[in-house]
Design goal:
The chain is built from 29 helices and 17 strands. With 686 residues, the protein is of the alpha/beta class. 47% of the residues lie in helices and 11% in strands. The relative contact order is 0.10. The chain is globular and about 85 Å long.
């Protein structure tokens, strides 16, 4: 089939564009990849030299796929020299081709592991400066990269990455206190790279961009090599990439495909203005829209369109469904996360048994994997197989595994992985010492009580404390929730110190959930076997499984739980978007920052447009009520303005069906009798 036959009139108009520069505003599900493939095929068909067409995208896989699909639409050998690459690999190709022009002859490109190794070396060489900071070497590299990609200064980069964008006097003081030492380390890192003749990935973009923007010879050479530059996912480009692309306005024809309404990666440096202000930034440019959506029914698109229309930013598009009408989205009001999680589990099991759907027909989206911890606990309990995207699963989180390591060794004293993790948790015990202690315990083969062995292997107060904890946990073997309580009480200070950067915000709240999950099982062995062993690691550190205990391979039917930021490219027949509540959308931190509010709007837009046929949105009743007591920093005049600021509090009634779950729905665990629970049934009889 010719590429033309697969294009609608909007796509064909873009493909056959005859002007200088074009931005294709491609809404969600409108066939942007098909359009960029069609454009490349059209150019070759019309006589453009394939070697003078460069396709740029963000992954090697996507670049290769586009090139291969272009070739499949053309006679054999007609597009063999067509090149597709990521921004970084393309710049590397240019540097290799013109090493003297870019001043990078005999330089070696280093990967992130090499970068980390150099930064650790620098931190070791400048111990006095590094010892004043609570910033790890990897975070120093992240700050260095972020500053260069966003073109922000060090002060603002520290504010964004270390202090979560806070803008107050205390934060200003803390930044000023560490800035000098951070600058010293970053300058030393940069100098060491030059001494060793190394280029990191960001250097590749920077070197080419600098030369193209300052050296007429570089422009002249590339003008001979390039006639057309096709850029995919334009909304994900950052200021450094824009700086790289700018010289090509006067070198060749730009054909950029993107959607400013799906620009959601500002934390990585992406700037939606590269799309939203394209017309103003690029002379002799035009904009064409792709608004015909092939993924979703019109009712789903209506709510997504409404969300964008409420924005002060003009996104210049309105999606229309090719598939026609379908179900109205459901807006579900819930009282708490457990009620929400149990309702979602019920809905999936009902769809599976009564509608003959697969688990894989369901996509669950959340702002963070942290928020889905309750849902994952319920899924494990209800035997619903799932995999996660965008973050580690609840039971795989490091702080959870630290605590559970104690329960594992009580359950199985020969669990070497758990012994190493538990022993190294305590200050003063490293891996070598832990291995010696473990060897003493394992060599005894059960003839001596383990608390006695621990005292023998760890002299002094530390041995008494650790052996006493083991003994106390062992006495409560029949009460798994109580074991979690005891372990947490003994380890909480150590956990709080180890994970101090995000303890309050992200980790501390996981332990009540762990206890609730533990209370679901009548014995420790069941808890370990059902919920934890498939999250264990081999001795070499590689995961045994990356899915829930019922999903043992990539081919297994499973629900997908994803962060919204990891969901672009995903779609499902039934999409459930969790907790679209005030102070979640937009987040409480965004409310005094218009740019942050609008990015949160785009994040929600991406989530809503993943659904094909059924969209379910959950919302917390308590959060809705909370808008009556809005933070003074927002300074909104009245509740109607508050409603406008919280995205789905003012949604028109005709766009959704609403349902509120009563307070007595699925009361959590209050009347459970774990000893009588049939774990194989997959049902919760709370």
């Amino acid at each position: 089939m010719s590429y033309r036959e697969s294009l609608n009139e909007q796509q064909l108009k873009a493909v056959e564009f005859k002007g200088q520069h074009l931005l294709v505003l491609a809404g969600a599900g409108t066939g942007k990849t098909r359009t960029i493939i069609g454009r490349a095929a059209y150019l070759v068909e019309k006589g453009a030299q394939p070697s003078k067409i460069q396709i740029l995208t963000f992954t090697k896989k996507a670049a290769n796929e586009i090139v291969e699909r272009v070739k499949s639409n053309l006679p054999k050998a007609s597009a063999q020299s067509l090149n597709g690459a990521t921004f970084h690999s393309w710049c590397n190709q240019l540097i290799i081709k013109y090493p003297n022009l870019f001043g990078a002859a005999n330089f070696t490109v280093i990967d992130p592991d090499d970068q980390l190794g150099i930064m650790k070396m620098i931190c070791g060489n400048y111990k006095e400066a590094y010892s004043k900071l609570r910033i790890k070497p990897q975070q120093l590299i992240d700050i260095y990269s972020y500053a260069r990609n966003t073109k922000k200064n060090l002060t603002e980069s520290l504010r964004d990455l270390v202090y979560n964008g806070k803008n107050d006097k205390d934060t200003d003081y803390e930044i000023s206190a560490i800035k000098t030492d951070v600058e010293l380390l970053l300058r030393a890192y940069q100098k060491k790279k030059m001494e060793l003749r190394y280029l990191d990935y960001d250097d590749l973009l920077l070197v080419v961009s600098t030369q193209l923007n300052s050296n007429p010879e570089a422009k002249s050479l590339l003008a001979q090599d390039l006639d057309y530059l096709l850029v995919d996912e334009m909304q994900d480009t950052n200021p450094l990439q824009w700086e790289l692309l700018t010289p090509f306005i006067n070198i060749c024809h730009l054909f950029c495909v993107g959607d400013d309404a799906q620009s959601i990666y500002s934390f990585r440096g992406a700037d939606f203005r590269n799309v939203n202000e394209f017309n103003r930034r690029v002379p002799n440019s035009e904009i064409l829209k792709l608004e015909k959506n092939y993924r979703s029914t019109q009712e789903i698109l209506d709510i997504a369109n409404w969300l964008l229309e409420k924005s002060p930013i003009d996104y210049k598009k309105k999606l229309k469904s090719i598939r026609g009408s379908g179900e109205k989205p459901l807006l579900l009001n819930v009282s708490d996360e457990w009620q929400e999680a149990n309702w979602v589990a019920n809905e999936i099991l009902k769809n599976y048994s009564e509608e003959d759907r697969q688990f894989s027909d369901h996509l669950i989206l959340s702002r963070s994997q942290y928020y889905t911890k309750t849902l994952q606990a319920v899924f494990i309990r209800r035997k619903i197989p799932y995999i996660t995207f965008g973050g580690r699963k609840f039971l795989q989180a490091a702080h959870i595994k630290d605590l559970v390591s104690l329960l594992r060794i009580v359950n199985n004293p020969y669990d070497e992985i758990a012994w190493i993790r538990f022993l190294t948790f305590w200050e003063g015990i490293g891996e070598v010492k832990a291995s010696r202690i473990m060897a003493i315990i394992l060599a005894d083969q059960g003839s001596t009580e383990i608390p006695i062995l621990l005292k023998r292997a760890i002299p002094g107060k530390d041995g008494d404390k650790i052996s006493g904890l083991y003994e106390e946990i062992q006495r409560e073997r029949g009460k798994v929730g109580r074991m979690v309580d005891i372990a947490y009480e003994a380890m909480s200070l150590g956990l709080a110190f180890r994970y101090r950067k995000d303890w309050i915000e992200k980790r501390k709240g996981d332990f009540p959930v762990l206890k609730l999950l533990a209370n679901s099982y009548s014995t420790l062995a069941e808890f370990i076997g059902e919920g934890l062993l498939d999250n264990a690691e081999n001795l070499n550190g590689s995961p045994v499984l990356s899915e829930s205990q019922l999903a043992t391979s990539e081919d297994r039917d499973h629900v997908i739980i994803s962060t919204i930021h990891s969901a672009k490219g995903l779609e499902a027949d039934i999409c459930i978007v969790l907790n679209v509540s005030p102070k979640s959308f937009p987040s409480a931190r965004s409310l005094d920052d218009m740019e942050a509010i609008e990015e949160d709007r785009r994040v929600l837009y991406v989530a809503l447009t993943r659904a094909k046929n059924r969209l379910i949105i959950t919302r917390n009743i308590a959060s809705i009520s909370a808008i009556h007591g809005i933070s003074e920093s927002v300074q909104l005049k009245n509740l109607s303005q508050a409603n406008e600021s919280y995205f789905l509090t003012s949604i028109p009634e005709d766009l959704v069906n609403q349902q509120t779950i009563g307070p007595n729905f699925m009361k959590i665990r209050d009347a459970e009798k774990p000893s009588k629970l049939d774990l194989s049934s997959g049902m919760d009889f709370s």
